[in-house]
Structures
1.
Amino acid sequence: MSNLRAELADAVDQAEWDWLKQHVQRDVVVVVAEGLDLIDVGVAIANDNVTSIQHWIGEQLIAKPSVEQMAVWNSDRTKRFHALIVQPYVLVQEISA
């Protein structure tokens, strides 16, 4: 199980908004707040760590993209994200300009 963290770290990639749109339409994109470790979230989801996941949802640290966020991303063609696929989800975190 200790390899999971390393595997997920290796799987983190950069993505453009256009690439993510299809996943948003399938309702599988989860936005991870800046300051929260993308790998930690991936490990928690892969291990079905309900306690951590519910805490982050409650603190609004992970959420589905809001209409406002998507409007901003649609207007900024240069927006990039760190992306991590943890089936069935695509975890994304905005890359600060």
2.
Amino acid sequence: MPKCDGCGNDYDKAFQIVVSNKTYTFDSFECAINQLAPTCTHCGVRIIGHGLEKSGAMFCCNHCAEKEGVTELRDRS
């Protein structure tokens, strides 16, 4: 059985995600999120949705961006 790259669990329903030509195997979305989702520059939370970005910094919300002094953001979705 494939082994999860996040928790090491052997699971017959594991799935794979390819990011930048590297293949990862996970047994749950939770493990995939914990391993691959970007983190907010301000609060450190994993960004599950689109998030916000300014000059390479990722933010989970406008509030966190403002706390880091970012005042002009554009939605790229």
3.
Amino acid sequence: MYITARKKDTSKLTATMTLQTLKQQIDQGALPFMYLVTGTETALIQKAHRLFSSIIDPAEQEMNQASYDFAEVGIDPILADYLSAPFFGDHRLVLVENPTFLTAGSKLNADQEKAFLSAIERPVPGNLLVLFADDATLDKRKKVTKAVMKEAELLDLPALNERQTKQAIQQFLQQRQVTMDNAAEAELLLRTQASYSKVLAELPKLLAYAKESQTIDLAGVMGLVPKESTAQAFDLADLVLKGQKGAALELYHDLIKNGEVPLRLNALLLGQFRLLLQVAGSQGSDQEVGQLLKVHPYRVKLARQSLGRYQPTKIRAGFLSILDMEIQMKSKTVDPVFLFEEFMVNF
């Protein structure tokens, strides 16, 4: 049996709240009545879902566990479920995705807000409410958001940095007695932009590839792991800045043949040049700058490496030319491939 209680002074705990801490709370049977889960690392958020679900006995989950998307159902069914007593069990678990009422873009009406605040101020014993939100969009000035952040246990699951992703890969492979050479690891990180969630999604294929040799090599990664669109945009921007017109045009044509839409490809290229300019004017660690710009720290690292090779004036000129190309794509009936070819010739 778990004990749910109002949140006490947890200022020290919230600074270090992790999935391990959550598991300890579950194992010890002492849980707060509400959690606010933030972060962008999909794999960790999915693990949090599994941990929360473990609170309810599998035989009782159909009756005492519910998941809602606030953007689809609104607050009324969520409150009705959360305020109901557990059905033939000790606990009821209510999981809520997209609680946009905590952001500037959405709000509850006066009666709904009053009902929600009353529910979290006087929680039903044994019931747990878990809100999964994006911290970057929370409006921390709103009364309802302030109340949630005051009463809830805060669990933040940000994107893992490159070092943490490498450690996770090594631990995953060691548990399965498989090795990966340095070249393969570097290429895997490049193709997934060092996203832990994306790496995790690709590892089963690589394990199958290494079933006999127990080794993942560069050929396996290059043959099985597709490049993320951001990685492709980085490659294209690098060729543009190097002035390698033939190679840039060849890659551009290949991407179009593989289904990339010219306007989207142009937007990716524009975004890469914008990132280079933003990173050039920023200070702090890759992690800090990544959080500020809302991009993965690995992209900041790659951008800084590029800035060591190219003059900011050239990057700025490229950005303006690509921006002009986008305007022409949207306003004229000119072949976008021709526009890119013209850009490469002139640049």
4.
Amino acid sequence: MALTAAAGCSADPAGHADAHRQAVTGPHAAPSAVTDPRGFTLVASGDVLPHDSVIARAGTDAGGSGYDFRPMLSGVRHVVSPAGLAICHMETVYGPPEGPFKGYPDFVSPPQVAPALAATGYDSCSTASNHTLDAGTEGVRRTLDALDGAGVRHAGSARTAAESNRPAWLKAGGARVAHLAYTYGTNGYPMPEGAPWAVKLIDRDKVVADARAARKAGADIVVVSMHWGTEWEEAPDADQERLGRELTASRTGTRPDIDLILGTHAHVPQAYEKVNGTWIIYGMGDQVAGEMFNYTGARDPRGNESTLGRFTFAPPASPGARWQVRKAEFVPQWYDTDAGRVVDVNAAIDKGADLAGVRDRVRATVLSRGAAADGLTMAE
């Protein structure tokens, strides 16, 4: 986590809001031929990182009694909610309902974030990050309990060994979707005694094994969230590139084991790239964060810029074949630290906001590895 100040589109083109929030009832749903001809759109976004200023803003939005994060996220609800499936990244852990709460360096966030994520339209969140153990196993438990209470599924951290071995099971359109999540580390915190499964660490062989197990259990689509990379670097580092190549190259028979990789952690937007026929978002950037200061100690506006990835999946042509991404898009986002609001940049520009510089910077980074040639477009 970098140093921070103490205080501090259009609707789903597939039109399948009716498929939203359909959860598979168990981890062992048997594979079957696709009988539902519908496709669906998956939306994903970056790090939710409540610094002290973000928590204070939610307190103000609640009228001084509790915390309300719904207004903060409302600016992208029109993108998130219509999607067949929406995935976020909850970087921090929650405290008791009445606190105390704190931001950097060891985050303890209000559990009221969870219902706000649900109200925005998120179905599942990755919870594996370098901050997952900031409050030990109690922080993990409180976080997952709150997400469960809000109806938001989760992947990457666990309260029990059995839970750690299960992906988040979801359904959208006619597809069963398994969501897996991993982190590069936990800021030096060791795994809790007696709970070596509390958070999933990145291990190439383990990721592949989990993906294959999910596929065997009936997953039509396997989505992997990766908390990885080098903070403040817009280009993916060597480990991201290597892992991305290896994971997307992994196949069982003729079918890839992983269908989409969603990256977080770097604080800045990173490139999208199609590798071995599979889309990777190396880093989506921070969706919610206070004022960000990079390693030089300078205020860095890129730390409040991010993207929403949007992928429209089409059913396979034959049973057992791969669900194909027939449309890949990104939506530039910006967190307005003064107003405490997540902003859809293009929608704001259409209304006269002076955010062309943000849009152009995000677009240049996202397309920097040739994704446009593979069909990635910026959603208008």
